[in-house]
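sanity check this record:
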Amino acid sequence: MRLDGFGIFVNDMGKIIRFYRDVLGFEIKEAEDTKNVYLVKDGTLFLLYGRKDFEKMTSRKYDYVNGLNGHFELALYVDTFDEVDASYKAAVEHGAEPVMEPTTEPWGQRTCYIADPEGNLIEIGSWDKPYEIKEQDNTI
């Protein structure tokens, strides 16, 4: 088996589409009233599923956490520490919930956390080097 992608179960599709598209810069081609959204971000398939539509498709009812939740985090990488700070500030100014302000951790990574409008955690981090070099250095 190979990892093909991951999905988030969404209550308010339009609001989440606008957040990921307008605040975080994801390319989303579907309309805001769609049931499922498919996009590829840096080679990874990212899916947004309407909760009610998914329940109907699977003939099951699911429990969902309301508010800030710790079920998973979506990690985004930027090339510099300054970009961590700027990305955090811009995201919060455009509706992201601040969770942890940018901090340089003892292991050398600068990181911060925000939450999307449905409480899903998003990390924005950097090792202060381009992504390709970070991967070659096996920093993580």
The beta strands are 5-10, 36-41, 44-50, 73-77, 97-104, 110-115, 121-126.
